[in-house]
Design brief:
By secondary structure, this protein is of the alpha/beta class. The chain has 7 helices and 9 strands.
């Protein structure tokens, strides 16, 4: 913002500690507050005409709602407009506030509007960036980031790609008597679980599992009891 003000030749005073930029114009001084959503209480006492909340969907829905309400309550002067900008992060605040609530009460449509901006329409973003998004994220998340679509990006990211005709196997552990076992480990309190796989010619066969075990030692005992003579590689989660 400050480089833009400098470029436009607009005089201003910037108080970094307070998050305040005061524009000195022919119409008088105009204040712009730059505040963190971590401290919505700093809004108390402000009188606002416009407000914009950036990346609101990166907050937990309850927190985002509190921040939005705190901002909206300070719009007491002028045209009183508020915008919420964010890449959709699933079905969170933006979806609830601007889609679900409007569907439940169509009278809200006169006051709430959704504008979806596609990355493809931004001529300042290179095609390499778009391709990188597609390479790094599953299709659903890429769709949200590139086209601003509301999609479920927290569930079904594995099983939505599972095709029983393509991916199912009737092979069991007995079909791989001397192969190294690759065990993917998920650590949970009172609910340890793991998948057991083998790799043949770069094809992964998942042929066993452990689940509902109490703790790490219980998992160790179960693996050693079932596969005492196997070469095993374990891939633990970050826990």
């Amino acid at each position: 913002l400050l480089p833009l003000l400098d470029k436009l030749g607009i005089r201003y005073t910037h108080k970094i500690k307070d998050g305040l930029i005061t524009l000195h114009t022919m119409w008088g001084n105009k204040n712009i507050w730059l505040l963190s959503a971590d401290r919505p209480t700093k809004l108390v006492g402000l009188t606002l005409s416009y407000a914009c909340i950036d990346e609101i969907d990166t907050l937990r829905t309850v927190h985002a709602t509190d921040v939005y309400n705190a901002v909206a309550s300070r719009l007491t002067k002028g045209s009183m407009q508020i915008c919420s900008v964010s890449t959709p992060e699933g079905y969170k605040f933006l979806y609830d506030h601007f889609v679900q609530q409007v569907e439940a009460d169509p009278t809200l449509l006169a006051r709430r509007k959704v504008i979806k901006a596609s990355t493809h329409n931004n001529h300042y973003i290179d095609d390499d960036y778009k391709e990188d998004i597609r390479r790094r994220y599953p299709p659903k998340r890429a769709e949200a980031y590139l086209n601003g679509e509301f999609v479920n990006i927290t569930a079904g990211q594995v099983y939505e790609y599972f095709d029983r005709n393509t991916h199912h196997t009737n092979k069991t552990i007995n079909d791989f008597p001397n192969h190294t076992l690759h065990i993917g480990m998920d650590f949970n309190f009172q609910n340890m679980s793991a998948t057991v796989s083998t790799i043949v010619d770069k094809v992964i066969y998942t042929i066993d599992e452990f689940h509902h075990l109490k703790d790490t030692q219980a998992m160790i005992n179960a693996i050693q009891d079932k596969y005492p003579d196997r070469n095993i590689i374990i891939y633990p989660d970050p826990a």
